[in-house]
Specification:
The chain has 97 residues and is mainly alpha-helical. 86% of the residues lie in helices and 0% in strands. The longest helix has 31 residues.
Length: 97
């Protein structure tokens, strides 16, 4: 039981750090471009982390339908995220586009 508790605590700590990293990335990007909202970026990055988590859990459980769905949903989301970043770059540097 101690092993399971220690593992759970480690997973919780790593998950907390993972989300903190998303916070740092959102803050860095929002500071770099006035057309990116830190809150919007956090929301997008958190959603990305959730899709990655869902896919990993589905694979561990060998739930291949859920794995495919989470991959497809995650792919659609990452394209949305890349569009949001591209839009901000084009707004910040319109003379380049």
């Amino acid at each position: 039981m101690l092993q399971k508790t220690a593992t759970r605590a480690k997973v919780e700590q790593l998950n907390k750090e993972w989300y903190q990293n998303a916070d740092y990335i959102a803050r860095f990007l929002a500071d770099a471009n006035p057309y990116w909202s830190e809150k919007d970026l956090k929301d997008l990055l958190y959603m990305h982390l959730q899709f990655v988590t869902d896919e990993a859990v589905a694979r561990i459980k060998e739930d291949w339908k859920a794995n495919i769905k989470s991959f497809d949903d995650g792919r659609a989301h990452i394209l949305h995220l890349s569009d949001a970043l591209s839009d901000g770059i084009m707004k910040q540097f319109p003379e380049k586009f």
